[in-house]
Specification:
single chain, mainly alpha, two-stranded antiparallel ribbon, globular
């Protein structure tokens, strides 16, 4: 499978690709589902509200473990949004037509999308650190926690982190898509179904790893105060 990079149309100088239109569709679907699940909250929830509450509760338990209760309470919406968007994007590759229709391309199998997510995650981790400790204490904490050689290595690491996040998510999703399509051509009966079942777990793990890493980076940035 070749990554779709051709623009469908342009909005001024910005080119809109299949990955972008799929992202728009995912955002629209998630927005509508969130509105439907929360527009008429009841003590005895309906099916959609119940599913939403279970999902939110599970994510809160997870981020309580990685961020701590205090940080989770303050920044849960941001980290939960990362996880939900990534996992839904990953699972979109299991739908018919994914990667074959020009306007339907798995967002997380596009390097430009994963790079964008990694950049947002990079600024998020530092924003939380500065907000929690203050700019001066945050900077001093970085400067005084290491020797000069280690300081320069740490600076390099800060720029490598978003690159590694982007390449890890892109490489794993693009590779999984490519392998699945290749196996489908060789064994069109039976094996693709097994691969799709395995993809359910694989896509979940990739979303989990991405959000776990940015949670760890966030806690590390706050340091001993957390």
């Amino acid at each position: 499978m070749e990554e779709t990079t051709h623009a469908l149309f342009s909005i001024g100088p910005l080119e809109v690709t299949g990955a972008v239109t799929t992202m728009w569709a995912i955002i629209l679907v998630l927005t509508v589902l969130s509105w439907l699940a929360t527009r008429n909250m009841k003590e005895v929830p309906g099916k959609l509200q119940n599913i939403a509450e279970m999902a939110v509760g599970s994510l809160q338990n997870y981020f309580n473990g990685t961020l701590g209760t205090r940080l989770c309470k303050k920044y849960f919406p941001v980290f939960a949004t990362f996880f939900i968007f990534i996992i839904v994007s990953n699972y979109s590759g299991l739908l018919p037509g994914a990667g074959h229709l020009k306007a339907f391309h798995v967002p997380t199998a596009s390097l430009s999308v994963t790079a964008g997510l990694a950049i947002v995650a990079f600024f998020t981790t530092h924003f939380v650190g500065v907000k929690e400790r203050g700019f001066g204490k945050y900077l001093i904490g970085v400067l005084t926690s290491m020797t000069i050689p280690l300081f320069f290595l740490a600076i390099i690491e800060q720029f490598i982190r978003p690159l590694s996040l982007a390449l890890r998510l892109y490489g794993n999703l693009y590779g999984e898509e490519s392998v699945t399509e290749y196996l489908y051509r060789l064994f069109p009966i039976g094996l693709p179904l097994v691969m799709n079942i395995l993809s359910l777990l694989f896509c979940f793990i990739q979303a989990l790893v991405f959000t776990m890493l940015i949670s760890i980076y966030t806690v590390e940035g706050i340091g001993e105060e957390e």
